[in-house]
Design a protein that fits this description.
- By secondary structure, this protein is of the alpha/beta class.
- The protein folds into two domains: 6-50; 60-200, no CATH class.
- The chain has eleven helices and eight strands.
Length: 209
């Protein structure tokens, strides 16, 4: 659980400065972690949510919907489950909502239900979409079967991240690397959860963008 303290605020400022100056994320994280005594969760918060402003803006400028719609199944499903469970969710520099679970609920029995909720939203918008699941994750075949039985398109592939990118159209994910390499992106999570659940890092820590 992240609790806001002055050392974390300073770490965010320093980390963002280093990234904007072109320093690598690992070296920068190691530096600020050591200087401010960051916890594992605080370090993870910086890694997942604080980005060079130029790259964050690049992603923001891709916001929009163009078919085909490709949904990163485990990424979206797990984030939504974490929202249901009351986990902390953060609005990151690129405008996307992320948690700090690092996929620890990949085997959750609610994955099909979560993806059906996401699918219902896309259907309500009149969009055709496919859900991509990574074969390296256990139960991916079972999840895909459940989605297909509900009438949704679901594919199990060897590398979900690559597949989401190469299919073009619009990527529905919060994976930073996928977002950077995609033509168009859609922040579906922000439409599926209560806005009051989202911690806006810059506002909460009194940071100027």
């Amino acid at each position: 659980m992240i609790s806001w303290r002055e050392q974390l605020r300073e770490a965010i400022l320093d980390y963002r400065y280093l990234l904007d100056r072109g320093y690598g994320s690992k070296a920068s994280l190691d530096l600020v972690t050591g200087r401010y005594g960051l916890t594992r969760e605080e370090r993870l918060l910086l890694f997942r949510c604080i980005h060079p402003w130029s790259r964050a803006e690049e992603i923001r400028n891709k916001m929009g919907i163009k078919e085909p719609i490709i949904l990163d199944g485990f990424n979206i499903g797990i984030t939504l489950i974490n929202a249901w469970d009351g986990e902390q969710l953060f609005l990151c520099d690129d405008g996307f909502v992320r948690d700090l679970s690092v996929g620890r609920k990949k085997g959750d029995s609610r994955l099909v239900s979560a993806l059906l909720v996401a699918g219902e939203l896309l259907i309500s918008l009149g969009l055709d979409f496919s859900i991509i699941l990574d074969s390296q994750i256990s139960r991916s075949g079972e999840v895909a079967k459940g989605l297909r039985e509900a009438g949704l398109s679901a594919d199990v592939v060897g590398r979900a991240d690559k597949e989401v990118i190469v299919r073009g159209g619009t990527s529905v994910t919060s994976d930073f690397v996928i977002l950077l390499k995609s033509e168009n992106v859609f922040n579906i999570i922000s439409f599926l959860i209560d806005r009051s659940q989202i911690i806006r890092i810059n506002e909460f820590a009194n940071l100027d963008p």
